Amino acid sequence: MDDMPNGDCAIAGMAEPDTMAKRAIIAVTRLNINRDTGVPAAKSFVVVMDVARRALVFIFTARARLLLLKVPYLPRYRPMGCSRAMYCHAFLKDFIPIRGNNVGCNMANVKMLAFDVIVFVYVAIAFAVFVPWLLLSAWGPTPMTLGVSDAVYRFFSVFCHQLPSRSLFFDGIQMPVCARCASIYAATGAGLLFLRLRGYGPREFKMNWLLFALLLAPTGLDGTTQWLGWRESTNALRLITGVPYGLGYAYVLAWAVPFVYALLELVVVAARRDWAGTDAVLGRIKFMAWPFTTGRTEAPQGAR
After folding, report:
1. How many Å apart are CA 198 and CA 192, to the nearest integer?
2. Which pairs count as long-range contacts for 47-52, CB under 8 Å and 24+ apart, including other chains?
3. The pTM is what?
């Protein structure tokens, strides 16, 4: 090992990694050499370095690239003869489609990525609503569970009044949001998951404004009449009316992702003075947003 050349690293039984990984592996290997020759090092540090070395080998081998094929918005392969710089340029063109005539080419990928981020955030928020109850019920009031629960309550205090009289309790533990907000968050997360599995996100579709209004109406009616002092709602009613509101919110988010991208695409096409392309994008925007068009429910031909 001491005679190992500076720019080479021979590892038996391992596929030859890329240059960047090779350099990192050499550096980590030298740390292990120093450990073997008597340089003091903490055991935990050595373990971390070994894990890092194995992770670098895995990331920069063909096996890792094969796993990336399962992610639909990542590039699928680098053709033979294509340099790394050319490959990165082609990948970036998918996300910044300004050069050339194929404006918006393959941009279903970035819309899917944006929608996946939205789905992940709202599902995480819906799960966080139940975190204090799960922690305190399972492990009791320990410093860790109390600290995590307090952080969750502080986070949701920005969005909800958290009044005890309007909140749900499980095993004597108050949820970090009121009953209405709890059902809205849960329904939004479930609705976004359902729409994602149905292929929404990159898909352009016509907004059904009547359906959207009907989904928001129960919460609006219940909340408005209570706010005006005409009646006092109950937690059961808040739970029930929050569900359609959350589904409506998920519906409008699935519609908004391709709609916002179409608006951005309109700016790019108009800046290039491509008037035929501008008319086509305007037609898609009108189809998605204008409530009085009839007939189609899917985007017109040429929509991306």
Report:
1. 10
2. 52/28
3. 0.63
Structure token pair of residue 76: 């699928």
One-letter amino acid identity for 202?
P
> Helix 275-289 vs helix 235-271: angle between axes, to the nearest 10 degrees?
170
Q: For residue 276, what is the enclosing H or E element? A: helix 275-289
The single residue listed with the structure tokens 């890329």 is 18
Q: Which token pair is 225?
A: 């009449």
Inter-residue contact 174 to 167 (CB < 8 Å)? yes
Q: How many residues does the chain have?
A: 304
pLDDT tens-digit series, residues 258-301? 999 999 999 999 998 889 999 999 999 999 998 876 555 555 55
Q: Strand, coil or helix: what is 168?
A: strand
CB 139 within 8 A of CB 153: no
Over the stretch 174-224, which tens digit does the pLDDT of each residue have?
Answer: 999 999 999 999 999 999 999 999 989 888 999 999 999 999 999 999 999
- Of 92, 93, 107, 74, the residue nearest 262 (C-alpha): 107
- Contacts of residue 53, defined as CB under 8 A and 6 or more positions apart, other chains included, come to 24, 25, 28, 29
Amino acid at 28: V
The strand pairing partners of 170, in sequence order, are 173
Q: Give the domain ranges of the chain.
A: 19-95, 108-289
Please return the burial class of 304, using the count of CB atoms within 10 Å of its CB with bins 0-12, 13-18 and 19+. Answer: buried
The answer to whether 53 and 25 are in contact (CB under 8 A) is: yes
Q: What are phi and psi of 169, to 5 degrees?
A: -125, 135
What is the torsional sign of CA 176, 181, 185, 187? positive
